Inverse folding.
C-alpha cells in the first residue's frame, strides 16, 4: 500500500504463507502498529476485528499489484509491515511505463473491488431486515451483530477512503508512482522534479486537510511526505542542472 519504510528484514516471528501462488510475509511490526492504531476501541473484540479488517484490506490491495505484475511474467512477493506493506517485483523484460502505471493502479482498484463486495453484503443484510427475513433478524439479534456492523463499517472506510487517499499524486503512494511515470516520459530530471513538485504541493494540501479534520496522525504522515518530496525534488533539480 504505502512503501513508507524500507524492507524491515526477516525475523523469527514473521508469518509466512502464500495466496494464489504469491508468497506473503507478515512482519511482527504490522500486528503491533495495527493494535496501536486500533487500541482506542472500547473492547478487545473490536480491536481484534479492526486488526483483521486492516490485514485483509492491505493484503487485497497488495494482491492487486502483485497479480498484475505476475501477469507480465514477473515474480512478485508481498511484505506486510509497519503502517502498510508493499508488493515487490523485479521487472524482467517488457517493462513499460504503461505497465508500471497499471500495476500501481491495480492496488487501489482491488481495494475498490473489496469495498463493492462489502457494500453488497451490507445492502443485502439491510434488505433482509426491511423485508423481515428470519435469517437477517437472527443474525442481527445474535451476539455477533455488533462485530459484523463494526467490520462492515471499517472495511468500507479503509478500502474506499484510504484507496482514494492512496491515489493522491504524492510519491511514493500509488498515485505518486502514476504521476511519476506520467511526468517522467523521457526519463528526464526535469520531468522527475515536476512529479516531486506536484507531490510536495499535494502532500502539503493533504496535511492541511487532515489537520482540519483533526486526524493528526494522517496530517503528520502527509507533512513528512511533503518534506520527503521536497528532498527528492531538490535532488532531481540538482541532477538536471549538472
Ligand atoms: Zn499500493
Amino acid at each position: 500500500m504505502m512503501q513508507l519504510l524500507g524492507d524491515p528484514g526477516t525475523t523469527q516471528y514473521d508469518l509466512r504463507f502464500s495466496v494464489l501462488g504469491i508468497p506473503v510475509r507478515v512482519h511482527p511490526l504490522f500486528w503491533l502498529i495495527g493494535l496501536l492504531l486500533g487500541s482506542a476501541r472500547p473492547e478487545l473484540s473490536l480491536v481484534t476485528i479492526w486488526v483483521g479488517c486492516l490485514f485483509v484490506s492491505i493484503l487485497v490491495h497488495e494482491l492487486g499489484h502483485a497479480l498484475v505484475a505476475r501477469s507480465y511474467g514477473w515474480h512478485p512477493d508481498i511484505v506486510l509491515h509497519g503502517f502498510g506493506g508493499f508488493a515487490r517485483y523485479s521487472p524482467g523484460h517488457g517493462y513499460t511505463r504503461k505497465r508500471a502505471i497499471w500495476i500501481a493502479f491495480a492496488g487501489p482498484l482491488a481495494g475498490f473491488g473489496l469495498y463493492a463486495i462489502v457494500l453488497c453484503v451490507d445492502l443485502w443484510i439491510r434488505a433482509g431486515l426491511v423485508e423481515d427475513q428470519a435469517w437477517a433478524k437472527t443474525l442481527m439479534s445474535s451476539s455477533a451483530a455488533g462485530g459484523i456492523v463494526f467490520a462492515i463499517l471499517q472495511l468500507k472506510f479503509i478500502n474506499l477512503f484510504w484507496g482514494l487517499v492512496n491515489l493522491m499524486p504524492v510519491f511514493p503512494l500509488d498515485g505518486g508512482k502514476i504521476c511519476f511515470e506520467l511526468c517522467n516520459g523521457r526519463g528526464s530530471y526535469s520531468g522527475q522534479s515536476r512529479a516531486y513538485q506536484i507531490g510536495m504541493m499535494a502532500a502539503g494540501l493533504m496535511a492541511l486537510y487532515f489537520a482540519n479534520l483533526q486526524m493528526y496522525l494522517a496530517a503528520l504522515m502527509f507533512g513528512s511526505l511533503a518534506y520527503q518530496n521536497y528532498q527528492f525534488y531538490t535532488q532531481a533539480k540538482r541532477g538536471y542542472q549538472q
About this structure: The beta strands are 15-19, 22-26, 77-81, 84-88.
